[in-house]
Design brief:
The complex is a heterodimer of chains A (about 425) and B (about 300).
Chain A lengths: L1 H18 L5 E8 L6 H14 L3 E8 L4 H11 L5 E5 H9 L12 H4 L4 H6 L1 E2 L2 E2 L2 E5 L3 E5 H6 L11 H15 L12 H8 L5 E2 L2 E2 L4 H15 L7 H14 L5 E4 L4 H7 L1 H5 L1 E4 L9 E2 L2 E5 L7 H11 L2 H10 L3 E2 L2 H4 L2 H4 L7 H12 L3 E2 L8 H16 L5 H15 L1
Parallel strand pairs in A: 1-2, 1-3, 12-15
Antiparallel strand pairs in A: 3-13, 4-5, 6-13, 6-14, 7-10, 7-11, 8-9
Helix pairs in contact in A: 11-12, 19-20
Chain B lengths: L1 H13 L3 H34 L2 E2 L7 E2 L3 H7 L2 H12 L3 H16 L6 H13 L2 H12 L4 H8 L16 H26 L3 H9 L4 H12 L1 H16 L3 H6 L11 H11 L3 H27 L7
Antiparallel strand pairs in B: 1-2
Chain lengths: ~425, ~300
């Protein structure tokens, strides 16, 4: 009996020591799908942090991208949330709206605030309140297959400069080669970002306004291209993943993608990669580029918010971002890191990824995550997506689709 | 006398009888499973019913809203589309059961290499949907093998993305369910066939029954419990279909392949409206229960009568 009691106490102490070390606190840090490729980087990051912050231990948990929100909800409900969690803007918006995240404004000093590109920091402002620190970003570039371009009569030294030129090139590729020129990012709710890149507002105050004649014309433009078979049907279902597969198979003229996907092209089809060149993302009238952004947030019920904030600042500081960018083609969210020669100069024998990195670094001041954040996020986004898809498949006219979506949004906002 | 009777009854009152002891032992054996069922099935069931009448987002305590969730769900056209799709999915049940039965009859023969065939038909069952979904995604794609075959045979005018077709996408997903489920039900029917005593079939043949007569008059009636189990499981799986649709179409295009369980998932985990999800769940549970009762009743009375 006594031995059993002793064992119980020992187990309890062991479990307790995992949660809070004898010297101080233990933070739990959740990342998204970084294991196993970036295990060494994260492990070294944590080791250095522990050396610099005696008494603060960090336990790293890597979560799959498709499950992180559900797992976070579960841990919040159970009262055992992580202290720092890696989220993208849509995830942060959903959780912040449910009251799951800690507002960071009061914890962030102005000198720290100024470290980040303003547009990226503001991407994590949800309802005017800051809920995350930007960690890394992947603004899109246009990768193109020079062989297909030559067959289409396009000059590989002259990538498209405007959104209109991009479409003209895609038409020319399809007309002359029979291969699709591109798979534009118009699936799901991405059209909301295309609106903003074209300088068209989505919201005015608390009112949805994306059914003006210019919005309708923008949607009609994509619907017409779809119905004229200038981009494949699976664009609407499989998005950038389908595009990457098709490009990698040598069946797509241009790939509009975050630069990190070039790695996949290189791994899966070296000959296509060798024929790949990279151009900048063509700017629309909005002079802004949608760049999917990853950040760090702190759950509202974190037991150690001060230490968690210091850790989040440490992870996103210049040199740590730079070290991360050196092992994968992502871009920093810290201004000083982006000024490093690594992002401004090409090596002697540059690869497509090197070109993408330098081009992307130039685009950083224009990049921000254009995810639209509204109350009832999931419901409103589904309504938008369903209506736009109905327009693509001819069940509604573009005007009817946008009118219906706006009506639904305004009834809920 | 009274004293002796009282004396003789006394041990019976203080010590339980053998039946009581048997029951006690039985319950003790059942206890671990009952505890697990209570914690992981019955308690969530009760909580789920309660949530159907509450506003709940996981992070804040549930708030009682009466029948509001039921009203919202029944007034949502998307819910009825989802329920209609789940009912359409029942089309897969007779096709699947018939094909599995025929396949079981085929692999029940003593042929060389038959074990290999049995194993081959079972492979899709143990293939995860993440893998199977990806594979079928490619096969159904615009440049995939399904279109290639269709074009070669002159059945299609132009290639299209099957999983993005507003009308055909649901049926395309059903075919995957069919492909994935056939091995499972084949094994079920194979076990049922092998449990039928050979003497009965031999007696039927001695009495002059041909193969077809022996099948309909001996095999099929004796297979009735297995048929009940197979169709019941398949019906419930069809009503509750989720994985295939989630992996392959995500409910699109414009909600045309959303099934009842996917609708529930969307409400719970994409919109964080767990009360609405629970309310929709009540309808699906009622549908499943109704179909189960119908099955049991039909098979108890000897199957559908040719009236």
């Amino acid at each position: 009996m006594r031995r059993g009691l002793g064992m119980g106490v020992a187990v309890f102490l062991l479990v307790a020591s995992v949660r809070a070390g004898p010297m101080g606190v233990t933070l739990e840090f959740w990342t998204i799908s970084l294991r196993p490729f970036f295990t060494d980087y994260i492990t070294e990051l944590l080791r250095t942090h522990e050396l610099q912050n005696p008494g603060v231990r960090v336990r790293w948990v890597d979560q799959p991208v498709g499950a992180v929100v559900q797992k976070l909800l579960g841990s919040l409900a159970a009262g055992t949330p992580p202290d720092v969690v890696n989220l993208n803007v849509p995830m942060a918006a959903e959780l912040a709206q449910q009251g799951g995240l800690l507002p960071l404004g009061a914890l962030l000093r102005s000198e720290d605030r100024n470290r980040y590109f303003e547009g990226m920091l503001r991407s994590f402002e949800i309802g005017g309140t800051l809920y995350g620190l930007p960690w890394y970003v992947a603004p899109p570039v246009v990768a193109y297959n020079t062989e297909i371009w030559k067959r289409a009569g396009l000059d590989p030294d002259r990538p498209p400069r405007t959104a209109e030129e991009l479409i003209a090139y895609a038409r020319q590729i399809k007309d002359r080669t029979g291969l699709y020129g591109f798979m534009p990012n118009v699936d799901g709710t991405n059209l909301l970002q295309r609106f903003q890149e074209a300088g068209l507002p989505v919201l005015r105050g608390r009112q949805a306004v994306f059914n003006s004649p210019r919005h309708v014309a923008e949607l009609a433009k994509w619907v017409r291209l779809f119905r004229e078979d200038y981009f494949p049907e699976e664009t609407l279902r499989r998005g950038y993943l389908g595009a990457t597969e098709r490009y990698t198979a040598g069946q797509l003229g241009m790939l509009i993608t975050g630069p990190q996907f070039l790695l996949r092209v290189r791994h899966d089809n070296r000959s296509v990669y060798d024929r790949t060149r990279v151009g900048p993302y063509p700017l629309g009238r909005g002079r802004v580029i949608h760049a999917p952004l990853m950040g760090l947030a702190i759950p509202r019920t974190s037991r150690h918010p001060q230490e968690a904030m210091r850790f989040a600042l440490y992870v996103t500081e210049d040199r740590n971002q730079l070290a991360f960018c050196r092992i994968v083609t992502i871009l920093p969210t810290a201004k000083a890191a982006a000024r490093d020669p690594f992002f401004t100069r090409l090596p002697t024998h540059p690869t497509a990824e090197d070109h993408a990195r330098v081009l992307d670094a130039r685009q950083l001041p224009l990049a921000r995550d254009l995810t639209v954040v509204v109350s009832h996020q999931g419901e409103l986004m589904k309504a938008f997506r369903d209506n736009v898809e109905a327009a693509f498949f001819g069940r509604k006219t573009p005007k009817e689709a946008l009118d219906d979506a706006v009506r639904f949004w305004n009834a809920r906002l | 006398m009274r004293g002796s009777k009282a004396l003789s009854l006394a041990p019976a009152r203080s010590l339980p009888g053998p039946r009581f002891r048997t029951a006690l032992v039985a319950y003790l054996f059942l206890a671990p499973a009952l505890v697990l069922l209570s914690v992981f099935t019955f308690a969530p069931l009760v909580l789920g019913v309660f949530l159907a009448f509450a506003d709940y987002n996981v992070l804040t305590p549930p708030r009682w809203v009466g029948t509001e969730n039921l009203r919202i769900v029944t007034q949502d056209p998307a819910f009825w589309v989802a329920l209609r799709n789940s009912l359409r999915y029942l089309l897969v049940v007779p096709a699947l059961q018939l094909a599995a039965l025929l396949l079981a009859l085929l692999v029940n023969r003593r042929l060389p290499g038959i074990t290999l065939f049995r194993a081959a038909y079972y492979v899709p069952v143990i293939t995860s949907f993440a893998v199977a979904g990806l594979m079928w995604n490619w096969m159904y794609a615009q440049h995939g093998v399904v279109n290639w075959v269709g074009l070669r045979l002159g059945l299609l005018g132009r290639p299209f993305d099957w999983l993005n077709h507003p009308t055909l996408a649901l049926y395309a997903v059903m075919l995957v369910t069919f492909w994935k489920g056939i091995g499972y039900y084949m094994v079920l029917y194979l076990a049922g066939l092998q449990a039928i005593p050979q003497e009965l079939l031999e007696a039927a043949r001695v009495d002059g029954a041909g193969r077809i007569q022996a099948f309909f008059l001996v095999t099929l009636p004796l297979l009735r419990p297995t048929l009940l189990l197979g169709t019941l499981l398949s019906t419930l799986a069809a009503v509750k279909v989720f994985e295939e649709v989630y992996v392959m179409t995500g409910g699109g295009p414009f909600g045309q392949t959303t099934t009842a369980l996917l609708y529930i998932y969307q409400k719970a985990f994409q919109e964080f409206r767990f009360g609405l999800a629970a309310a929709a769940g009540l309808f699906v549970a009622a549908l499943g229960l109704g179909l189960s009762l119908l099955h049991v009743r039909l098979f108890r009375e000897g199957g559908l009568r040719p009236w």
